[in-house]
Amino acid sequence: MVASEVFPHAKTGGLADVAAALPRALARLGHDVTVFTPRYRGVRDGRVVHRGTVTLGRHRHDYALHELPLGDRARVLLVDCPALYDRPSLYHEGGVDYADNPVRFALLSAVAVEWAAVQSPAIDVLHGHDWQAGLLPIFARAIPHAATVFTVHNLAYQGTVHKHWVTDLGLSWHDFHPEGFEFHDQLSFLKAGLFYSDAITTVSPTYAREIQTPGAGEGFDGIVRARSTRLTGILNGVDYDEWSPETDAHLPAHYSSRDLSGKRACTAALRERLHLPPPAGPEAVPLIGIVSRMVEQKGFDLLAQLRGDLLALGAQWAVLGSGEPRYEQFWQALAAEAPDRVSVTLGYDEALAHVIEAGSDVFLMPSRFEPCGLNQMYSLRYGTVPVVRNVGGLADSVTPWREGQPGGTGFVFDAYTPEALLTALREAVAVYRLRPDEWRRLQQRGMALDLSWDRSARAYVRVYKGVLAAR
User: Fold this and answer.
1) What is the chain's mean pLDDT, rounded?
2) How far apart are CA 27 and CA 72, in angstroms?
3) Is the bond into 277 cis (omega within 30 degrees of 0)?
4) pLDDT, tens digit (0-9, with 9 covering 90-100), for 12-36
5) Mean pLDDT across 134-149
6) Segment (H or E) for 66
7) CATH architecture label of 261-450
8) pLDDT per position as a tens digit, 90-99
9) Higher pLDDT, 224 or 241
10) Per-residue pLDDT at 48
11) Residues 6+ apart with CB under 8 A from 63
12) CATH of domain 14-237+454-470
């Protein structure tokens, strides 16, 4: 596998979690998995297992491979090339992408292919994740027996750069055309992955359908439709080694669906940590959690239109994340106005994210689009009832609660409007306050779901076997 970030070595989003958990799940099924990722600044050393040099057009770089275990039969090989990866952040600085990102991530794929080409027993599958690994199937032409799979985690990130990179990276101009990696007279890493891979996957069945439409295709819907017979939507899973209320090392107390007393202890500890006072009166006050990038995609434009309504819900808010300054400032202003009801922590804190998942009563994800989403699945596992929009992986993992109907696991709204979001929030708060037995059933149904990576890994194995058989 090739991924630009792998937890715990580097993380900006869900890709890092997937790139760590899926290999372990495949290994549990009996497969040997090696993941290539950059050795960014601050990532610890591993055992050096190889040194080499890669030439890409006008670029020539020495590198070393540091090996670290991911688990039995799974490992990470960190590509150590300080000239490319020893930077203050992974992809950009000051909001501006690094100008040499094309060579930084082309080299990652090239190193993986160079290594794979000489392994014995032979590598069967080369699996790239997102645009950063989009050139993997092109370099993989050097290994005719190997099948290639490309996973789109978010179609909005396309790795589109000036066409001079075709020469600079030593690529062929024969591939620079509409049925190749040319996109509006530019080079698109994402399009290379889509067009040249033997199979394409994306991170939920609903998102696989959505990206074939103009509304969600980000300009690539025609390209995806052209390769739709190679496309499979596989819902991401939850790494229960990292995310389980029964064993989570970050929690002040553990619990299960049979005994939720530990969850109440987590809620009390979260309130204390965030300086939110416990409810003073008899009325139940739900604690609503958000762990998210603060960007429009995640629905923060809707929340910004509901300032007074959010405070009028009679709930408390535990918010963790960072993103666009206007949304950071919105939550900071709300916390300053009502410090007894709103706490905001800017940035990312892995331990706090776990405690918010466990200690919150409600978890909010009002996304405009959501390829998969992991936090709503963490929430289901932790008995934290999700409020989500009916889109992408949110639709595939959360069953709407409806009065008098069985099987609901959360509260779901359809229209991307502040009014629809507010209606869902009010409904969730009302059930929490007035119907504690029904709320307990909501929690238990969510906690009983099998959202494990073992389920997802079996679906990936079917894809791998399919492309190998086709070859």
Assistant:
1) 96
2) 7
3) no
4) 888 999 999 999 999 999 999 999 9
5) 97
6) strand 59-71
7) 3-Layer(aba) Sandwich (3.40)
8) 999 988 999 9
9) 224
10) 98
11) 51, 52, 53, 54, 79, 80, 81, 107, 111
12) 3.40.50.2000
* Edge-to-edge order in the sheet of strand 59-71: 33-38, 74-80, 59-71, 47-56
pLDDT attached to residue 280: 86
Short-list 335, 333, 347, CA closest to 294: 347
- Say how far apart CA 17 and CA 222 lie, in whole Å: 30
Judged against a pLDDT cut of 90, whether residue 454 lies above it is answered with yes
Rounded CA separation 447/315 (Å): 23
Distances (CA, A) of 366 to 97, 229, 319, 363, 412: 27, 31, 14, 10, 9
Question: What gap in Å lies between CA 155 and CA 211, rounded to an integer?
Answer: 8
Q: What is the DSSP letter of 279?
A: P
With pLDDT > 70 as the criterion, what percentage of the chain qualifies?
A: 100
- What's the CA gap between 28 and 275, in Å, rounded? 42
Q: Which residue has the tokens 């932790």?
A: 382
Domain-wise residue ranges, the chain: 14-237+454-470, 261-450
pLDDT of 121 reads 93
